[in-house]
């Protein structure tokens, strides 16, 4: 199974404000910067409960792929046509369950979920797009790790709006 991350952060490394808002990100994602192509390369999305609750508030459901939400609590009703399922367990159990269903490429989203999958050694690719704004406090992309996670730089791209995107392969 290949697990990848595609995420936007403030220049100071936050994926959201302390209250979970990410109003500092460009409206509508900003200029094209590879997200559509990235989504075409994955079979499913795995996200945490907080990210799911945030996405539910969007005016339109943004995914045309199956979405697996990691939560021990039942989920709020989803929009009609959305393919959403709740899963529980350690990231290795989640990956095994999805692999058994024939899912080979997943998009891992949400701060804690990304951190848990990294800690478990399950992320192979990181694409981080930095937005040219400092917000000072918030939910960090990365958290404490029990060991170093060594990555190899693949590419860095810059965009006219000031977005800077770096791609890395995780050396596990």
Question: Could you explain the architecture of this structure?
Answer:
The mean pLDDT is 95. The longest helix is centred in the middle third of the chain and has 10 residues, at 91-100. The two termini are 14 Å apart. The relative contact order is 0.26. Helix content is 19%, strand content 31%. The strands form two sheets. Strands 5-4-3-6-1-7-10-9 form an eight-stranded mixed β-sheet. It has a two-stranded antiparallel sheet with strand order 2-8. It has one domain: Dihydrofolate Reductase, subunit A. The protein has 172 residues and is of the alpha/beta class.
CATH top level is Alpha Beta
Q: What are the segments in which pLDDT stays under 50 over at least 5 consecutive residues?
A: none
Corresponding CATH superfamily:
Dihydrofolate Reductase, subunit A
Outline type: globular
Strand order of the largest sheet: 5-4-3-6-1-7-10-9
Strand percentage lies at 25-35%
How many distinct beta strands?
Answer: 10
State the separation between the terminal residues, measured CA to CA.
14 Å
CATH architecture: 3-Layer(aba) Sandwich
Q: What is the CATH T-level topology?
A: Dihydrofolate Reductase, subunit A
Helix content: 10-25%
Q: How many discrete domains?
A: 1
* Individual helix count: 4
Based on secondary structure, the structural category is: alpha/beta
Overall residue-averaged pLDDT value: 95
Radius of gyration, in angstroms, nearest whole number: 16 Å
- Following the backbone from N to C, one meets helices and strands in this order, namely EEHEHEEHEHEEEE
**Main sheet properties:** 8 strands, mixed
């Amino acid at each position: 199974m290949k697990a990848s991350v595609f995420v936007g952060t403030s220049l100071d490394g936050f994926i959201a404000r302390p209250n979970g808002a990410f109003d500092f990100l460009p409206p509508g994602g900003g200029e094209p910067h590879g997200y559509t192509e990235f989504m075409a390369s994955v079979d499913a999305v795995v996200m945490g409960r907080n990210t799911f609750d945030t996405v539910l508030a969007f005016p339109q459901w943004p995914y045309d792929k199956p979405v697996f939400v990691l939560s021990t609590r039942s989920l709020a009703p989803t929009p009609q046509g959305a393919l959403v399922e709740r899963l529980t367990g350690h990231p290795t159990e989640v990956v095994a369950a999805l692999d058994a269903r024939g899912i080979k490429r997943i998009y891992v989203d949400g701060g804690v979920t990304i951190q848990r999958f990294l800690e478990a050694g399950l992320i192979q690719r990181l694409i981080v797009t930095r937005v040219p704004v400092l917000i000072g406090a918030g939910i960090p992309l990365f958290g404490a790790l029990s060991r170093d996670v060594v990555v190899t730089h693949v590419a860095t791209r810059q965009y006219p709006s000031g977005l800077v995107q770096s791609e890395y392969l995780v050396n596990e």
